[in-house]
Design goal:
Layout: H1 23-31, E1 76-83, E2 100-107, E3 112-116, H2 123-130, E4 141-143, H3 153-156, E5 160-164, E6 168-171, E7 175-179, H4 186-191, H5 198-207, H6 221-233, E8 239-243, H7 251-268, E9 271-275, E10 288-293, E11 296-302, H8 307-310, H9 314-337, H10 340-344, E12 355-356, E13 359-360
Parallel strand pairs: 3-9, 3-10, 5-8, 8-9
Antiparallel strand pairs: 1-2, 1-4, 6-7, 10-11, 12-13
The structure holds adenosine-5'-triphosphate.
Adenosine-5'-triphosphate binds next to helix 2.
């Protein structure tokens, strides 16, 4: 028999903090100093483990020195950064390694860093984390001395600019990734950005060869891209994160943009990370080259230390790095497939990592729509 008791009269309820094991509670717990697990995450599996106190002085920047825990003037720095995309319950998917793994990066002011790596290496994810678009523990990333996720002023002020992806959106009943468009001139978009130096705006429109009267519903992909880039560069950024935004540009547009960006670094001391798969004409552009594979930073070298750059053989070099990495990956995969652990894995869907609004992005391990099937 169930016994119901009368609830206390209104006003006599006691208020207490509800216990929660949700993602925010776990994230909060993760910033408390604690022992990280061997998976590079906190004990609940939240993505990032570094804290300001635990910063490593062991950076990949040659010659870099500095006491642990201080950012010693580096414009951009990560310390043993790891990140996993959360599943439907806010936790990383069990058995799936982090997308960004134990990365220690340090870049000085004025650096132009090429970010290279095979598809799926984690370049976009890393740039998004650096751009403050994914939450990581406060001490894990420092850009201009602040945490990009927590210090929203960094991006809002334009000091940190992230430029990536396509300019599109999902529209109900129309489709996914619909190009951003509307029957208004490019000028209206560009002039609507407040607090911009008119001379800089004019210079950018000249560099990007933008006709202010382009109607945004009739532009080509490359023209739309030029307007997108212009908007992203209007404020004199101090740190710029570029995720392959030159794909649609013609050769001249790309060359002029890269020259403009080089001048921004040399004259204003801006710092840029540029992820790309297009290497023509890039040999003399970078000051640093970073190579990512499988979520790890395999190299971060000064351009001066890479002789192939001076010999205009960047493409050849990248192809070699990619082939070596592919061979290592294949060998590792072969070993893993034959392992005891792999044979013991149930051949069924065991987890789902959630759904974007209106679109399933779950990761079911077979063709079934089952979420859990044991
Ligand atoms: N929203 C997401 N949820 C779960 N996993 C993701 C998500 N976005 C990316 N990933 C995974 O993270 C890994 C790295 O992806 P990322 O886009 O960062 O790679 P990339 O180096 O930029 O690749 P590319 O050169 O193809 O652009 C991939 O294995 C990808 O499947």
């Amino acid at each position: 028999m169930t016994v119901y008791t009368r609830p206390p009269p209104l006003g006599q309820h006691t208020t207490s903090v509800l216990e929660t094991a949700g993602p925010f509670a776990r994230q909060q717990a993760s910033v408390q100093p604690e022992k990280p697990t061997d998976r590079g995450m906190d004990k609940e599996g939240v993505a990032c483990k570094a804290s300001a106190e635990s910063l490593s002085t062991d950076t990949l920047e040659p010659g870099a020195k500095g006491p642990g825990g201080s950012w010693d003037g580096a414009v951009l720095r990560t310390a043993d950064l790891s990140f996993s995309y959360p599943g439907i319950d806010g936790r990383p998917l069990p058995g799936v390694p982090p997308v960004v793994r134990n990365m220690s990066i340090k870049l000085p002011q004025g650096a132009r860093c090429l970010l290279i790596g095979p598809n799926g290496a984690g370049k976009t994810t890393l740039l998004k984390v650096l751009g403050g678009k994914h939450m990581v523990a406060e001490g894990a990333v420092r850009v201009l001395g602040a945490s990009p996720f927590h210090d929203t002023n960094l991006a809002a002020s334009g000091r940190l600019s992230y430029l990536g992806g396509n300019w599109d959106r999902d529209i109900a009943f129309a489709g996914y990734s619909i190009p951003l468009q509307g029957d208004f001139p490019a000028r209206r978009m560009i002039e609507s950005v407040a607090g911009v130096d008119p001379a800089r705006r004019a210079r950018l429109m000249e560099v990007l060869d933008i006709d202010p009267e382009w109607r945004m519903h009739r532009v080509s992909d490359g023209q739309r891209r030029r307007v997108q880039i212009c908007l992203g560069l209007l404020h004199p950024f101090q740190v710029l994160l570029l995720d392959e935004i030159t794909v649609d540009l013609d050769v001249l547009g790309r060359a002029d943009l890269l020259n403009f960006l080089r001048a921004e670094c040399e004259q204003r001391g801006a710092t840029i990370i540029y992820a790309t798969h297009i290497f023509d004409g890039l040999e003399r552009w970078p000051t640093h080259v970073a190579f990512l594979a499988g979520g790890r930073l395999e190299r971060l070298q000064r351009a001066d230390d890479i002789p192939e750059l001076a010999q205009d053989r960047l493409l050849e070099l990248v192809e070699r790095w990619l082939r070596e990495e592919l061979a290592r990956r294949k060998a590792a995969r072969g070993k893993a497939d034959g392992s005891e652990e792999a044979r013991a894995k149930p051949d069924v869907a065991t987890w789902s990592n959630g759904w974007a609004p209106g679109r399933m992005t779950s990761t079911l391990r077979d063709a079934s729509n089952a979420v859990m099937r044991m």
